[in-house]
Amino acid sequence: MKSENELIQLFDVSRLTIRNVLFMLETEGRIKRSRGKKTLILDRLLRNKTNSEIKDFSVTLNLDYHLLNFKIISNNKNNKNNKFISSSELYYIERVRRFANKEIYLISRAYIARAIAGNIDKSQVTGKNLIDTLINICKINLKKSTQNIKAINLNASDAKFFCSIKGTPAISNTWNFFDDYDNLILIDEEITIKTLNVENRYY
Asked: What ranges make up the beta strands (E) of the chain?
C-alpha cells in the first residue's frame, strides 16, 4: 500500500483521517501493518491494478453543516467541560447535519480550547469539519482521540430537532481530541436517533 504521506496527498485529507482509516482496515483484517515495514493489503477488494487507484463509492450523506450557535464561553470549575485545564475560555459550536432533503440526522455540540486554537471566527467552522479546521487553519497537530458511545433519552429541546418526543431513545457519541502535549483541544458530542446503512464498493 502507499505510504501515509502518499495517501494524504492522494486523497487530500489530514494525517489523522488516514490513520483512522488504516486502523479500521486493519481491524477488519483487510491490511497488515508492521512498524518500519510496508503495509500489506490482505483483502483482494483493495488490491490496486497498476493503472488505477482505490476508489470508495460509499453512499454519502449531504455534507450540510448548519450552524446554530457560535460563541466564546468561560471554562469555570463548575462547567462540565472543565477537562480543558489549559484554557480559561472555550469556543462553543452547535450545529446540525442534514440529509440532502434537509432532514436532520445529527446534532453536534463542540467545545474547543481557545488558548490552544487561537482566534477562530464563524466562517472557519461554517460548513466544515472541525478536525480539518484545527489541523489546516489552526495548525494543530493532533496526537490521539478517545470515543465514548452511550444510549440516552432525548430531552425536550433535542427532540424538536428530530420531530420526535421527549424520552425518545438516542445515541450519544462523544469524541475527545488531544494535541502533541496531551492537552485536550476538542470535545464534540454528536447525538442522533437515525440508523444509517452505508454500502462501500472498491475496485
From this structure: 31-32, 40-41, 64-74, 89-98, 104-113, 142-153, 169-179, 184-192
CA distance 174 to 188: 6
Q: Please state the pTM of the whole predicted model.
A: 0.66
pLDDT in tens, 7-60: 888 877 788 878 878 877 777 677 888 777 788 877 655 554 444 444 443 334
Grid cell of 188 as nine digits: 464534540
Q: Which cell numbers in the block locate residue 62?
A: 449531504
Q: What phi, psi does 82 have (nearest 5°)?
A: -75, 10
Roughly how many angstroms between the first and final C-alpha of the chain, as a whole number? 14
What domains can you pick out in the chain, each with its CATH number?
A: 4-46 (no CATH), 64-192 (3.40.1410.10)
How far is 107 from 172, CA to CA, in rounded Å? 10
